[in-house]
Specification:
This protein is about 30% helix and about 20% strand. The radius of gyration is 23 Å and the shape is globular. The termini are far apart. Its EC number is 1.-.-.-.
């Protein structure tokens, strides 16, 4: 009926789904969020479960017991709703989880979530419109229903489907093999000879985790020399790529061999959208999701959007910016870009990346080189407020500090001065100053 609010389907109740739903509600849309688990939080939810859950589905979360954020909390809030103040900038996972839940409750999003609803299929509606047919299964009852929506926002994250390399001999290894997705507690490494494969954010952090308990950790990677300058504990030895796996040891490409009892794959994740019907017109090629306009809109069917694909970003702020970008067009404030504009923009950006030697798996990588320009392009095209420059600057500084001092960078404390400026302290300075203020207060 004319005048009725547009219907939005949001897939996933992690931070990207929750803030997308809040943005939709602000614009007067009608939103349903389908969440396959029984709680809010996505990748920030901790469970001891690994493998499959009680419904026979792969456990979604990759959270481990001792995780602290690798970004300062000052860039992990949302516009108008910041993470709670406290001395530290790098906080435990459970504080982030509580923050997401508080945010959802504050903006009345939680009651829009259909928990334990698995999205089984999304396909273009058969009524000749630009809408969508979404089939879901209620996991507790097994009941399947199909609903029609005007827009679909895919917010299922990308830290749930492990990417595990195939190494010659892996099937004959006598020790334990696991991916970081299934890692929960460091006790499994006690007195072991551990091989960590992969030098991304999880690889470096989990090398430190393993080193707390292991006899020796072999850290295998093929990254630039600057990573080799990182200072690790004395029981960590950096080694090159794996050549082959033997029953009780591993041979590396330089010809060296080391005895190993645990192989720990920190080799990232595959972007996976098993619910998308081929008629959705989206392909995933070595983690390159295409064709997308500005890494968000499905060019073949622009009423479908993907929130949160880019990585090495100010994640929550980017989720919110992408959601506002979508709602600007979906809500009718601006006309949807035409296909020619979207394809031209897509081809220009991708060709620029390929010309710099980037691989398909880096199609959505941002980092220091790309993220500032990316945020500005979203804001400019949709005529909306951008992410303040200070946030990008803190993100870049945090990444630089991690490379300089892997073991201690989380002692840094960031404070925002204005939209362009931040200051940084050591945690000991902040705690000391706080104690002095307390003493002075008590004295007076």
């Amino acid at each position: 009926m004319t005048g009725q609010p547009k219907r939005y389907c949001v897939i996933g109740a992690g931070s990207s789904g929750i803030c997308s739903a809040k943005t939709i509600l602000d614009a007067g849309g009608n939103v349903t969020i389908y969440e396959r688990t029984d709680q809010i939080g996505g990748t920030w939810v901790y469970t001891d479960e690994v493998g499959n859950d009680r419904y026979g589905l792969p456990v979604h979360t990759s959270m481990y017991e001792g995780l602290k954020t690798n970004l300062p909390k000052e860039i992990m809030g949302f516009p108008g709703y910041e993470m709670p103040a406290q001395p530290a900038s790098y906080v435990p996972w459970h504080e982030v989880l509580q923050f997401i839940r508080d945010y959802s409750a504050h903006y009345d999003v939680t009651r829009r979530i259909a928990f334990e609803h698995l999205v089984e299929e999304v396909r273009p509606a058969s009524d000749g419109t630009d809408g969508w047919s979404v089939t879901v299964r209620q996991l507790t009852s097994g009941l399947r229903t199909t609903e029609r929506f005007d827009f679909v926002l895919v917010c299922n994250g990308h830290y749930h489907t492990p990417a595990i390399p195939t190494n010659p001999g892996g099937e004959c290894f006598l020790g334990k093999q696991l991916h970081s997705h299934d890692y929960r507690k460091s006790d499994i490494f006690r007195d072991q000879l551990v091989l960590v494969i992969g030098a991304g954010p999880s690889g470096t952090d989990l090398t430190l985790e393993a080193a707390k308990m292991a006899k020796t950790v072999y850290f295998s990677h093929h990254v630039p020399e600057k990573l080799k300058q990182l200072t690790f504990p004395s029981n960590v030895l950096q080694v090159p790529d794996v050549l082959r796996i033997l029953p009780e040891c591993v041979e590396f490409v330089d010809g060296s061999q080391h005895p190993v009892s645990v192989i720990f794959y920190c080799t990232g994740y595959r972007y996976s959208f098993p619910f998308l019907h081929p008629d959705c017109g989206v392909q995933v090629d070595d983690n390159w999701v295409r064709p997308l306009y500005k890494h968000v809109l499905n060019i073949n069917h622009p009423t479908m959007a993907f929130i949160g694909l880019p990585f090495y970003v100010c994640a929550t702020l980017m989720f919110e910016l992408q959601a506002r970008f979508c709602v600007t067009f979906y809500g009718g404030r601006l006309s949807m870009p035409d296909r020619a504009e979207m394809m031209s923009d897509h081809d220009r950006e991708m060709n620029g990346r390929w010309s710099k030697g980037l691989k398909k798996r880096q199609a959505h990588m941002m980092g220091a080189e790309y993220q500032g320009e990316y945020y500005q392009s979203l804001a400019h095209r949709a005529q909306i407020e951008p992410i303040p420059k200070v946030m990008t600057d803190m993100h870049i500084d945090s990444g630089r500090r991690k490379k300089e001092d892997l073991q201690n960078y989380r002692n840094d404390v960031y404070r925002i001065v204005d939209e362009n400026t931040f200051v940084k302290y050591d945690i000991s300075e902040v705690v000391c100053a706080s104690n002095e203020l307390t003493v002075e207060s008590h004295s007076s």
